[in-house]
Amino acid sequence: MRFLIQRVNSASVVIDGKTVGSINRGFCVFVGISNTDTEQIADKMIRKLINLRIFSDEDGKTNLNLASVEGEMLIISQFTLYADCRHGNRPSFLDAGKPGPSNELYEYIIAKCKESVSRVEHGEFGADMKVSLVNDGPFTIWLDSAENGESK
């Protein structure tokens, strides 16, 4: 499982010309799911995500987490986080999860985040989405469950 987290001042997602999700200060999280991912892996990744201390305190140090700043979250499914570009110029997506199980896990992630974050918005799995955001910092974090010993 991979999370690309951007600390944002605002973010929104549009599908077919209609805004389906919009947040103010918080995280815009792009979620990539592989065939080997499970709810247990998702739980560990979500705990890490929610507790990330990447907001500045009164001294300008990144000591505050999402709850400390009453932050919001926009979650976007993005299978392209599993693009393999090692061979040729056309990415392979063989490592990305199959749509059915991946969608179930994506919905699980949204539901679990809603248990801890006051406002969680999201895109639509598999849709052609237009995502807009104002990155704050910029501040971008990459979480990969394989790098944290969470999968395989």
Brief synopsis:
20% of the residues lie in helices and 38% in strands. By secondary structure, the protein is an alpha/beta fold. The strands form two sheets. Strands 1, 2, 3, 6, 7 and 8 form a six-stranded mixed sheet that branches.
Low-confidence stretches: none
In N-to-C order, the SSE pattern is EEEHEEEHEE
End-to-end distance: 11 Å
**How much of the polypeptide forms β-strand, as a percent range?**
35-45%
Radius of gyration: 15 Å
Shape: globular
Number of H- or I-type helical stretches: 2
Share of helix among residues?
Answer: 10-25%
Counting DSSP E segments of at least 2 residues, the number of strands comes to 8
What would the keywords be for this entry?
single chain; 152 residues; alpha/beta; six-stranded mixed sheet; 8 strands
Description:
- This protein is an alpha/beta fold and 152 residues long.
- It has helices at 39-51, 99-116, and strands at 2-15, 18-23, 26-32, 55-56, 62-64, 72-77, 120-122, 129-144.
- Strands 1, 2, 3, 6, 7 and 8 form a 6-stranded mixed beta sheet that branches. Strands 4-5 form a two-stranded antiparallel sheet.
- Strand 4 and strand 5 (62-64) form a beta hairpin.
- Helix 1 (39-51) packs parallel to helix 2 (99-116).
- The longest helix has 18 residues, at 99-116.
- The chain is globular and about 45 Å long.
Task: Give the helices and strands, then pairings.
Blueprint: E1 2-15, E2 18-23, E3 26-32, H1 39-51, E4 55-56, E5 62-64, E6 72-77, H2 99-116, E7 120-122, E8 129-144
Parallel strand pairs: 3-6, 6-7
Antiparallel strand pairs: 1-2, 1-3, 1-8, 4-5
Helix pairs in contact: 1-2
